[in-house]
Amino acid sequence: MTKKIAIIGASGYTGAELIRLISTHPGLEIAALAANSKAGMRMAQVFPFLRHLDLPDLVTVDQIDFSQIDLAFCALPHKTSQEVIRELPKSLKIVDLSADFRLRDPEVYKQWYGNDHAAVEMQGEAVYGLTEFYRDEIKSARLVAGTGCNAATGQFTLRPLIEAGVIGLDDIILDMKCAVSGAGRSLKENLLHAELSEGYNAYAVGGKHRHLGEFDQEFSKLAGREVKIQFTPHLLPVNRGILSTGYVSGDAQEVYDTMVAAYAGEPFIQVLPFGEVPSTHDVRGSNFVHIGVTGDRIAGRAIVVTVLDNLCKGSSGQALQNANLMLGLDETAGLMGAALFP
Amino acid sequence: MTKKIAIIGASGYTGAELIRLISTHPGLEIAALAANSKAGMRMAQVFPFLRHLDLPDLVTVDQIDFSQIDLAFCALPHKTSQEVIRELPKSLKIVDLSADFRLRDPEVYKQWYGNDHAAVEMQGEAVYGLTEFYRDEIKSARLVAGTGCNAATGQFTLRPLIEAGVIGLDDIILDMKCAVSGAGRSLKENLLHAELSEGYNAYAVGGKHRHLGEFDQEFSKLAGREVKIQFTPHLLPVNRGILSTGYVSGDAQEVYDTMVAAYAGEPFIQVLPFGEVPSTHDVRGSNFVHIGVTGDRIAGRAIVVTVLDNLCKGSSGQALQNANLMLGLDETAGLMGAALFP
Amino acid sequence: MTKKIAIIGASGYTGAELIRLISTHPGLEIAALAANSKAGMRMAQVFPFLRHLDLPDLVTVDQIDFSQIDLAFCALPHKTSQEVIRELPKSLKIVDLSADFRLRDPEVYKQWYGNDHAAVEMQGEAVYGLTEFYRDEIKSARLVAGTGCNAATGQFTLRPLIEAGVIGLDDIILDMKCAVSGAGRSLKENLLHAELSEGYNAYAVGGKHRHLGEFDQEFSKLAGREVKIQFTPHLLPVNRGILSTGYVSGDAQEVYDTMVAAYAGEPFIQVLPFGEVPSTHDVRGSNFVHIGVTGDRIAGRAIVVTVLDNLCKGSSGQALQNANLMLGLDETAGLMGAALFP
Amino acid sequence: MTKKIAIIGASGYTGAELIRLISTHPGLEIAALAANSKAGMRMAQVFPFLRHLDLPDLVTVDQIDFSQIDLAFCALPHKTSQEVIRELPKSLKIVDLSADFRLRDPEVYKQWYGNDHAAVEMQGEAVYGLTEFYRDEIKSARLVAGTGCNAATGQFTLRPLIEAGVIGLDDIILDMKCAVSGAGRSLKENLLHAELSEGYNAYAVGGKHRHLGEFDQEFSKLAGREVKIQFTPHLLPVNRGILSTGYVSGDAQEVYDTMVAAYAGEPFIQVLPFGEVPSTHDVRGSNFVHIGVTGDRIAGRAIVVTVLDNLCKGSSGQALQNANLMLGLDETAGLMGAALFP
């Protein structure tokens, strides 16, 4: 039987990506779309690429009758998200795509995001949404917190290695390259085509990016001790795709074998043959993750390169994967589309 | 029951696009993939974005047992295509994506393509593959000739108008802007990223582009007299998407009404509200066509802008739409995916 | 002896382009830079690519001592420009890059720009800044109005042909393709990299673009009768470069000969051999214009393709060329740099 | 008095970039242009963006009368370069842009490039062309070997720090992001616009890139011991610009102070204020280098980000800077142009 879903925050990129994915999903029906600032508009006006779909018009959150909804996706900015989710029915299943329920410690949340958390009581209930590692908890969760797109990429690289104890914990570096859609529809000069295309730059250098909060929390928990990595994001002139180049100490073959074992049977994770290197071109628009492990000419060093689509597997695809689990549907439903190439 | 298909010429862009589309098609199974120059390779090596699929390895055409195949897509270059198709079993259903069976008159073929046609006897049997206008013939056809991507775009603009007699026939101009994937994987300096990105140019100016052969044939047939249009293609630094700006004389409102009536009920054709203008951004990766009609400040002039994805609706998507019809499947199967945005 | 110049509106793209060009000009010194909203900032903060230059800090217009200035460039938005220029010393030489003094008839100005002109009395004195056609007037002008970038491109295509009477006047079409920097640093969703790259669209279709005011004024004056052309701009995902595809009726060879004769001796205008087609790649970052003339398979039709860099020859380069003339310097000083390729 | 120069290998990107730079140089005249495969052609045919220049036609190397030449630039592929240079007059000043004379040890050359060196006797005479560090030797050199573009970028990051002994030598990582023009006009599928744009990937991962030969040679010489760094290049969908993210152990403030001191007075090197991060957008088309130093949240770690234009400062600009020195001209002549932005 078809499940009814609502999308709150349907006028941004992650909301649009959810609609794209769900438009060919066999078991979901989009019953409500909310975007307070654009309430009253048709989706064909906001996103003409969805023109062929028979979608409900945009409404405000207050206008949704949640008693008819099986699950709500919340694709709002952080801080707004917690304020909205706090007021939703307590029995409603929710997949939140914001940063608001990723960090378990309210102090850590405040440190990275600057504000007191407005729904502290719900943080205990939230399950961290990195499906491959929290699958069982997600199946029975009411509230799932989608991971950051950089945070997801880095964890696909490092979690199996930290857990297996095959790499050093004090010299990990993730040099990350991120597509611009991760910044959303923000109107900033450096995101204009004229200023972004044909060049690139690092940002938040030196340990300032908020996704470090997730890395610290998850890696320290896995290792049973504090783990702090170096993480440098770079903004690239492409629209979709994150590539993380991970530098670790350890035996490259052991690193490779650990990855192969960890991801055996995972429908969306592809570990490439040893020594091959993935490309973001090959995952654009898809829910797949490609991982390559290479040794270095310097003994005892390995390089792990991981790619995924920040809007899909890094955000809306992951959210749908989690929703499938929460609703008892096939985990891969609506998500098996191949990447767009070229 | 699942139908078995083969793709001949699976190492090019249109072949890869066919696999992408068919990978989520409920009624088709890819039983054979041929590419003579890369026979023996796995598709994951040729197109790593298809790595997650369980596909047959590449073979030569000769190695395919066509008795097990319900329909073959032929995604070869023109001239090669006719030589290969000539040798295939006469009972095999074929969708050809090349230019070889588009032109009914062998003399016209030779004029535009330079060589004598090697399978003249089969030209009579070939049905022109512009689905929306040859649907019934395609359903019962054995051999369907996919249209050129520019030719498709221009015909979506002009066919209903010529047929209805609402525009002048002697001053039609199509100014077309084409994505680079239309040129295929050809290794030419002007197709290198360094030389193509960040700029654009016209080419084949003055009536030299081969797709004019299709325009002449189809428009003259529709009008019952010779129709010759002006057509200028431009090469743009994007990978997918054709935009045709059509300049016609006629009453803009009548032009609009004609388009709305002609495409009513078509699952893939979206005529925008009068005065709105489409964008290639909204059809990238999809099988949809968006058409906008606008009046001009000069009375008696109308502008019709049409966009589609050259690799999908302009080539492989159209081919699959035709194959669905030929095999008695739902015409839209595998083709309802929304565009990728952003 | 070095001339001192000021740039009013130095925090936009055309202001930055002026500084880039003047930075290697042998006869000019940048004595003052104004940008009211960013007064007090260093240029290295606003445009880090100018970091190596020893430039004055940004000030407000009021803070400039114009008695020390030989010529001011005014690179402000239209409407603001007329209000600022009205208050400047009446003896100051000014090159205005906005639309405010391009249209001689205040009624026509109001029709296209929507507001009453605030400096009507100065419009009579303003000289239209298309250097190659108003060179003598510019030499002795106090106030020069830079042309629109599309308007410049179209006039390079059509002025010699209209003046020579070698083309029909009632069926001229300019299909124009424009780089995004022409829209300036405006913060709009459709100018974001994520929404602009990888696609394109027409806009202001049907005779709605403001540069038509210039076309009407200039072409009608040249022809001695009213001339109204069709003009469709398209927004392309590149940063610099306009390409105008002009469709005219007339003898192609005569059209070509007229162009060659008209531009003989012009330092910045390159008429290509007959039948060759120019590319925006070849003029990016330069003050050069490339023009190609081609005949059509339809007798009596010619296609004229013109390319230039909208920020340079279409705006700031043209402005500097005019300033050179107004200051008695070599017209080409600071402007002979070759395009950037690749 | 004007010096006469020749460019051997004038049909590639570095040859074209040399012509672009020299076209506004006050003291150089291009007396001969060679490109064996395109001998007989005009430069306007090979590079239409140079159409406005009065250049000699392309000839073969043999056709050049070197007695009339003061200095030759050799912009050929490696291996070819050594074979050509070996036959040139022994008194001719030469700036080689290839890899052939960068490595002093013929065994190391063979290890990285695979072939025996054909001009071993000239390697002793060649001076390494990183101007800022070999200025005096270059002034009196006859043969200067231009550095690799990645090698230049990495050395601007690390040389002052290794020389001053302020960083650890055993844990240096350079994560480099490179524009595609560095690959030249090679006709390869992965360099096509359709396959390169909208995505990116690492390559030569694990210590396989040839520029490591230069790093090893120069850093070990500076340190007085063997230094081996980790270096991972990434191919980005832009045409110009290298960004190197350097991870080093050391006190960030000391690292910064060392950089400021090392580059004081250098006309082309801009060290940004502490904590600021450079962008390749700001050096595109220019000979400038921007360097940013940042501390990390992990004590004792610093990140140094360096950007330059691979074709200009990383190749042809560096070559011209060296030629200026060798000919007794102003070192900065022809090189002070600001970057192209946007």
Automatic annotation (TrEMBL), chains A, B, C, D:
A single Gene Ontology CC term: cytoplasm
CDD domains registered for this protein in UniProt: AGPR_1_C, AGPR_1_N
Pfam family of the protein (one): Semialdhyde_dh
Reaction(s) the record says it catalyses: N-acetyl-L-glutamate 5-semialdehyde + phosphate + NADP(+) = N-acetyl-L-glutamyl 5-phosphate + NADPH + H(+)
Listed EC numbers: 1.2.1.38
Pathway of action: Amino-acid biosynthesis; L-arginine biosynthesis; N(2)-acetyl-L-ornithine from L-glutamate: step 3/4
Main location: cytoplasm
Its biological purpose: Catalyzes the NADPH-dependent reduction of N-acetyl-5-glutamyl phosphate to yield N-acetyl-L-glutamate 5-semialdehyde.
Protein family according to the UniProt entry: Belongs to the NAGSA dehydrogenase family. Type 1 subfamily.
Protein name: N-acetyl-gamma-glutamyl-phosphate reductase
Organism: Pseudooceanicola antarcticus
The organism's taxonomic lineage, starting at the top: Bacteria, Pseudomonadati, Pseudomonadota, Alphaproteobacteria, Rhodobacterales
